[in-house]
Design brief:
The chain is an all-alpha fold and 79 residues long. The protein contains 4 helices and no strands.
Length: 79
């Protein structure tokens, strides 16, 4: 059974109040929730974590490769 919008809002307010009052407890509760839901990235195998990191930073990686190729071409043309 899903929660109504009002119930979700109340729970979000309670979560926010808890985070302000006791951040350590809020962090522990969030860690437990992420483990139970299977979202904990630190529990994933290294290869899967690396794949997630690479897909999140693909534009930076591509820009770096293009910049390196351009610098290498510039070096070849100048010598």
């Amino acid at each position: 059974m899903s929660l109504t919008g009002k119930e979700r809002r109340i729970l979000a307010e309670m979560e926010h109040a808890l985070a302000l009052e006791d951040p350590d407890l809020a962090r522990r509760v969030a860690a437990i929730n992420s483990i139970e839901s299977g979202e904990n990235t630190f529990m994933r195998p290294y290869g899967q974590r690396a794949r997630v990191w690479v897909t999140g930073h693909v534009w930076i990686i591509m820009a770096t490769v293009v910049l390196l190729v351009a610098l290498l071409m510039l070096a070849v043309f100048l010598t």
